């Protein structure tokens, strides 16, 4: 059949900045970014959508932003700072997504203007999706406020909302124009939220960087004690590994391989089953423990290394398993979750396991009996394991 | 401010096929494409969404598709062929978009499966948008059935729906995985629809390819007579120029320049004001005439060449102006349309004019008095112009 071949490449570039006190008047970094971004003669407007819990924890933030843009004028601030709830709720209820679109329309935010989101991964996902589709893409700036979003989801290229009760059913691959990680936001996090974000650092170290895993082991106490320089290093290294992965073979996930989903297949199901009462990082920590022990049982990572992984997870303060992760029969939720994950990937299962610390390996089948045994070991025998 | 630099390129490739009788059993091109596309072990499903007027004009089409996939099995056909209205209506009412999402969900269409749309530009835009955001992108195949969509919008990388009463307010830049142009669909078009698509060929010739313009002049009679080989050449050359343009500097329109929007700023307003009773191509033909005469009045294209442009538009059978394009005062709809276009572009106006046939030039201001005079010339004096 006769045809014309189309082929072109699109270059995507953005910076993930690291700062402290982003909207302090003396900190010109944000304004400098806007001033340097694009040479269009158009007026650049900027709209802020902020997690209401972040506003509550940082009661001066809205005024601080207004003052900042009254002095630093690279962009024209939309004076209304939009407050919205954070958490999974904001991705479940389409009304929040629609409201962001409505505000983009109301304030004539165009392709040369900015929609900035301040908050955790959920609000960044939702606002990022709205920004990606309004006018086929207005400029989106992410200001993640949690450990999890600063080191992982916030620096990536995905956005989404839930739909038909399915996580991330709607979304796009559209990078932000910039990410600003401000360590001051970490100060107001609860211990539980703070800890939760460390799971993704453990995950990425296990599949990409053994030295980073060793660093995590050596610095576990400082992380638990919320030592800020230690956390800043963790976030930067984790973000860097994440960014490098995206820039690798398949930024927009055209293939089936999802190495960064290590430990996630069971975690997604657990979050859903507990109605997100188990936090994402908590679920991922359990998922990592499960897939690590499974990796050992299926002849991959050594028992010594598996023990080091489980022990690090425990040392950070995570639970290592959950009753809903137990296999009690063919219809156990976790096996249904595995089936759903297979369907989500389009029929061919691809699961990342561990060859050893720092080296992952993809498999296309998982054995239900070994999943069961891995769960039992985590539940019953981890005293033995951790005694090694 | 400290930062990590992210940069990567994403390669986009797709073919625009030209065929006759796409779903005839002997034509294996479509099946060959699916069989060769991706090496995933997953089952590939395919869902068809078809313009109901196309189904009416081609009453055997649905059965033909079912028979085709019962013999050629590279993809598993979803037996339900979804019929939807064509035209702008389908982009205005979000219900159609939601229904496509619901069907994608219902039949578990995933990233390795296909949503094919058969119809004109509007239904391709809407279905393409749904496919782009479901699961962050399922594979989308376009089968354009009109001259306009086969030579222009159908081969491009944009999709959209209207929202808040604004044309294309929501959408993405996501290329299809393939386009199939089947000339058999052109046989059932009305003369008006058939003619309408020729406007984009005139447009692209004027800004890109003087030789193609001369070919259009030489073949105007054959086009009016609906000679098929002539139309096939027109569609292929126009699609090629369009594809080459996209593959050029700015596929996803990050800048303000929109050369392919030559003649479109007034056309968009006219379509909207007439509630799309004036077809897109008809409005574009008038928009080209206006901007061509304006180009002459503002010291660019010669009067001889401007006359050739207007005469070709007339010879194809288009009207060259419309009462709603007249400037009668500062609040004339066309001047409001110009203002809206400026806002749509983000404050800086960029309008393509003609330096000469085949060579465009961008300007950032338009003179209301010259727009008025151009309209008057088209209305009153074109007899004189065309006598040259």
Report on this model:
- The structure is a homodimer of 388-residue chains.
- Chain A has helices at 29-36, 52-57, 61-71, 89-92, 94-106, 121-133, 147-151, 191-196, 198-208, 210-218, 220-224, 228-246, 264-273, 280-297, 303-316, 333-344, 368-387, and strands at residues 2-19, 45-51, 76-77, 82-84, 114-119, 139-144, 158-163, 166-173, 178-182, 351-356, 359-363.
- Chain A has 388 residues and is α/β, with parallel strands linked by helices.
- Chain A folds into two domains: 15-188, Rossmann fold, CATH 3.40.50.1970; 202-387, Dehydroquinate synthase-like - alpha domain (Dehydroquinate synthase-like, alpha domain, Up-down Bundle).
- In chain A, strands 1, 2, 3, 4, 5, 6 and 9 form a seven-stranded parallel sheet that branches. The first copy, chain A, has a two-stranded antiparallel sheet with strand order 7-8.
- In chain A, a hairpin with a 2-residue loop joins strand 10 and strand 11.
- In chain A, helix 13 (264-273) packs across helix 16.
- Chain A is globular.
- The termini of chain A are far apart.
- At the A-B interface, strand 1, helix 5, strand 7, strand 8 and helix 12 of A face strand 1, helix 5, strand 7, strand 8 and helix 12 of B.
- Strand 1 (2-19) of chain A pairs antiparallel with strand 1 of chain B, so a sheet runs across the interface.
């Amino acid at each position: 059949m006769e045809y014309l071949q189309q082929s072109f490449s699109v270059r995507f570039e953005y910076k993930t900045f690291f700062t402290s006190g982003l909207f302090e008047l003396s900190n010109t970094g944000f304004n400098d970014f806007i001033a340097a971004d694009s040479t269009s003669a158009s007026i650049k407007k900027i709209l802020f959508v902020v997690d209401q819990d972040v506003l509550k924890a940082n009661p001066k933030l809205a005024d601080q932003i207004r003052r900042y843009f009254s002095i630093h004028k690279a962009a024209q601030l939309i004076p209304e700072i939009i407050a919205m709830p954070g958490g999974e709720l904001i991705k479940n209820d389409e009304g929040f997504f629609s409201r962001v679109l409505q505000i983009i329309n109301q304030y004539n935010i165009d392709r040369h203007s900015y929609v900035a989101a301040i908050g955790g991964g959920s609000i960044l996902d939702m606002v990022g999706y709205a920004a990606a589709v309004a006018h086929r893409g207005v400029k989106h700036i992410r200001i993640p406020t949690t450990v999890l979003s600063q080191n992982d989801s916030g620096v990536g290229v995905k956005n989404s909302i839930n739909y038909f009760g399915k996580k991330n059913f709607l979304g796009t691959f559209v990078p932000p124009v910039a990410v600003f990680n401000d360590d001051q936001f970490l100060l107001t996090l609860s211990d539980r939220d703070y800890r939760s974000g460390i799971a993704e650092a453990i995950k990425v170290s296990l599949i990409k960087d053994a030295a980073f895993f060793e660093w995590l082991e050596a610095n576990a106490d400082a992380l638990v004690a919320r030592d800020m320089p230690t956390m800043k290093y963790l976030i930067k290294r984790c973000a860097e590994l994440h960014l490098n992965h995206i820039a690798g073979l398949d930024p927009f996930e055209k293939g089936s391989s999802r190495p960064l989903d290590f430990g996630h297949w069971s975690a997604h199901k657990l979050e859903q089953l507990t109605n997100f009462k188990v936090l994402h990082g908590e679920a991922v920590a359990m998922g990592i423990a499960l897939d690590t022990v499974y990796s050992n049982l299926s002849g991959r990572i050594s028992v010594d290394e598996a023990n080091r992984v489980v022990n690090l997870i425990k040392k950070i303060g995570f639970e290592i398993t959950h009753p809903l992760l137990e296999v009690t029969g063919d219809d156990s939720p976790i096996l249904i979750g595995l089936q759903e994950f297979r369907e989500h990937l389009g029929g061919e299962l691809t699961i990342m396991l561990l060859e050893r610390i720092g080296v992952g390996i993809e498999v296309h089948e998982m054995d239900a009996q070994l999943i069961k045994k891995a769960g039992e070991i985590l539940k019953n025998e981890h005293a033995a394991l951790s005694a090694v």
